[in-house]
Amino acid sequence: MEHLTFDYPAQRAVTTRAHVGVVGSGDLEVLLSPADQAGALAAHVVVRTSVDGYSHIWKSVLDRFFTRYDGAAQIEINDFGATPGVVALRLAEAVEAAEQGDDA
């Protein structure tokens, strides 16, 4: 089991929570919530994965995601061997769910 952390700059506050996906064979869950510190403009990502030795792949996927996403959020990813495509999909779903929560 590997535990990775990443930090990215952000431009806007996230105000709602989102939970997408499930931890199961070949999948993962993403939990997105507002940043821990009020006024902090950064995203903090914690990845817990069952697959060791792929931190460079995680960094690449998250780097690409954060070129488009600018929310100050706490993101937890619990992985059970998902592919990079599934990771990108679940992150996009979490953002969409959180943004729909803002409109409700």
Radius of gyration: 13 Å
The description of the largest β-sheet is: 6 strands, mixed
Helix-strand sequence: EEEEEHEH
Query: How far apart are the first and last residues' alpha carbons, in Å?
Result: 37 Å
* Residue share in β-strands: 35-45%
Helix % is 25-40%
Tally the beta strands.
6
The overall average pLDDT, rounded, is: 92
Structural class: alpha/beta
Instruction: Detail the poorly predicted runs.
Output: none
Tell me the domain tally.
1
Provide a count of the helices.
Answer: 2
Which word captures the global form?
globular
GO cellular component, one term: cytoplasm
Keywords: Cytoplasm, Phosphoprotein
Pfam families: ACP
Subcellular location: Cytoplasm
Describe the structure.
The protein is of the alpha/beta class and 104 residues long. The chain has one domain (2-103). It has two helices and six strands; from the N terminus they run E-E-E-E-E-H-E-H. It has helices at residues 55-65, 84-103, and strands spanning 2-9, 12-13, 18-21, 28-34, 42-49, 71-79. Strands 1, 2, 3, 4, 5 and 6 form a six-stranded mixed β-sheet that branches. Strand 5 (42-49), helix 1 (55-65) and strand 6 (71-79) form a beta-alpha-beta unit. Helix 1 packs parallel to helix 2 (84-103). The longest helix has 20 residues, at 84-103. The radius of gyration is 13 Å and the shape is globular.
